[in-house]
Specification:
Elements lengths: L2 H7 L4 H15 L16 E7 L13 H5 L7 H4 L22 E4 L4 E4 L3 H4 L5 E7 L6 H10 L9 H9 L9 E5 L22 E3 L17 H21 L4 H23 L7 H6 L8 H15 L4 E6 L14 H25 L6 E6 L3 E2 L11 E2 L3 E6 L7 E3 L1 E2 L6 E3 L4 H11 L9 E3 L2 E3 L11 H5 L1
Helix pairs in contact: 1-2, 8-9, 11-12
């Protein structure tokens, strides 16, 4: 008779009930243990493609023939009063500027996409474009925080942190939430931080290049047994310290990170080893080509991570130091082709690769930035920040694709039909993952806090799935 059978047969089965309670408590002690979504879910994981600096919607996914027609003429004084800009001092005196790029139909659905994104354009049958996003933040950092955390000030948990808090992760040997960036951003780490959630839910940054994770290999002379003894000793000291700081999530996260690092030494090298991919796959992502190699590696690594059960991966295109989409202030026709060329082919390759492997249905891919660019001309060759109407798109995760939702006015100034803010978008992402944004809460400062705060009533999941 096994021990489990003995417990079941003695004391009217209370022994087995006690064992079940102990096992459940042990499972709940792991904050990243996988959890079943409370609602029917279409997606299991998310790849968020964040275009840092603000992509011009009227030059990418929102064609405006009237803007082209009236290019060089001023915006009406009435419409100019409805917007604020960062560097155009008087919008009523600025002139409209049509897009210098042609828009052409993509896929069988015929969704219009500009020549900036010829590769993504071929995937429009799998993509739904949302042209009616808006924000009330017209500077970068507050707009990024609002998009990521639901609040324009730093200190709140990010979308990726909320997702891993709600669902955990299927792979305990890799981080639950991974961030890959070109470098420093205008918002800094708080945009992918855990805020007031336990620190274990913050994003883990992977590096660019051929070695995304440093120090996976032990130094010469350090064998696994010695390392394990060292970690056990550190863990013992941390546990002693934990008794005096029982509610310090930073200490808990440090303990968990040491253990995760130990487990990653066996799992992560395989996950980040792109040499195991075929040449055809690497070519699909543009790896080996000077312009697309860096973002292509990140995109391929994102596929390998979600394939292995990582819950949330964020790829950031653009950096605060060097090239980013915000160079459009003074060099629209130089910056946008340069930035689009880096990401267009890798993103299309990512969608094709996910689809061919049967992963697209369970992986929600989201593309977007903190805002768009104004239809007005800033100087001779620029566009200013523009949060009042801009585009994002979604693919996979049950999204049907081949559609356009919402619209801006004829010049692309204001979101017109189906106005959606960051709360609406985040509520929808959570719902596709099987979570109700109103019920995913965390008690903080005497209040049940949530990603969407008291907003997010415009969840538009049914439109994406129909």
């Amino acid at each position: 008779m096994t021990r489990r059978e003995l417990l079941a047969r003695t004391s009217n089965g209370f022994g087995l009930a006690a064992l079940a309670g102990i096992l459940q408590a042990a499972e709940s002690s792991n904050p990243l243990a996988p959890k079943a979504p409370p609602l029917p879910a279409k997606a299991k994981s998310v790849i968020f493609l964040f275009m840092h600096g603000g992509v011009s919607h009227v030059d990418s996914f929102d064609p405006k023939p009237q803007l082209t027609r009236y290019s060089g003429k001023p915006l009406s004084a009435e419409l100019a009063k409805t917007i604020k800009t960062s560097f155009i001092h008087d919008p009523s005196k600025a002139i409209l500027r049509g897009s210098p790029w042609e828009f052409r139909p993509g896929g069988t659905c015929g969704t219009q996409v500009s020549d900036l994104f010829p590769h993504v354009r071929t995937m429009m049958d799998d993509i739904t474009v949302i042209r009616s996003c808006y924000s009330d933040q017209f500077d970068h950092a507050p707009a990024i925080y609002l998009r990521s955390t639901g609040h324009q000030l730093p200190g709140r948990p990010s979308l990726g942190s909320w997702v891993t808090y709600g669902l955990g992760t299927e792979n305990q040997n890799l981080p639950a939430f991974v961030v890959m960036s070109d470098g420093s951003t205008k918002s800094g780490p708080p945009a992918y931080g855990a805020g007031f959630l336990p620190a274990v839910y913050q994003g883990t940054v992977f590096r660019s290049g051929e070695s995304p994770i440093l120090y996976l290999k032990n130094p010469d002379g350090v064998n696994p047994d010695v390392q394990r003894q060292t970690l056990d000793f550190i863990n013992t000291i941390d546990k002693i310290q934990e008794r005096t700081r029982p509610h310090d999530s930073t200490l808990d996260a440090r303990i968990a990170s040491y253990e995760l690092a130990w487990r990653m030494q066996s799992s992560a090298p395989d996950a980040v080893d792109l040499t195991k991919e075929t040449e055809a796959t690497k070519k699909l992502y543009g790896i080996g080509e000077p312009v697309t190699d860096d973002f292509g590696r990140k995109a391929l690594l994102a596929r390998r991570l979600v394939e292995r059960g990582v819950r949330f991966v964020e790829l950031i295109s653009g950096t605060n130091v060097g090239a980013d989409w915000d160079e459009a202030h003074t060099d629209l026709t130089g910056s946008h082709p340069r930035m689009a060329a880096k990401s267009d082919k890798p993103i299309a390759g990512l969608l094709k690769d996910l689809k061919s492997r049967g992963l697209l249905e369970s992986t929600l891919v989201v593309w977007g930035g903190e805002f768009g660019r104004t239809p007005l001309s800033q100087g001779d060759n620029g566009r200013d920040h523009h949060p009042y109407g801009f585009s994002i798109w979604m693919a996979g995760g049950g999204v049907k694709g081949g559609k356009v939702l919402g619209s801006t006015d004829e010049f692309g100034v204001q979101a017109a039909e189906m106005r959606l803010d960051a709360h609406d978008v985040n509520a929808t992402i959570l719902r596709l993952l099987g979570m109700d944004h109103k019920k995913l809460t965390y008690l903080y400062q005497g209040r049940d806090m949530r990603l969407t705060d008291v907003k997010g009533e415009g969840e538009f999941t049914p439109l994406l799935l129909s």
